[in-house]
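anyone seen this seq b4? input:
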Amino acid sequence: MYIKKLSINGYRCFSELFKINLREGLNVIVGENGAGKTAIINSFRQLFIDTESGSYNVSSDDFNKPFKEKSIVSNSFKIKVEFGNLSGAEPIAFLQWSDAANISG
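predicted toks r here
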């Protein structure tokens, strides 16, 4: 199992929809200062509640805003991942993070 795709919209420096495809194995994120490398990592932390305290709170810093202004541009943000090579019981482990509840048969 691996994270195949990450989509971010309205989170930190990503005012527009941002998508990145990842490959199985090691992926390296390279870019200039302020390009969003840390925001990508923090989006994973936000999604999977990965902090030292075991909880991750949303703050005003998480919403997109221009660098020069302090006002928030986005009133919501969306972080979405797509998994690849899920097998066995792995899909069940990630069910709480899925939109399976939104799927109608």
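The mean pLDDT is 83. The beta strands are 2-9, 18-21, 78-84. kinda curious what u guys think
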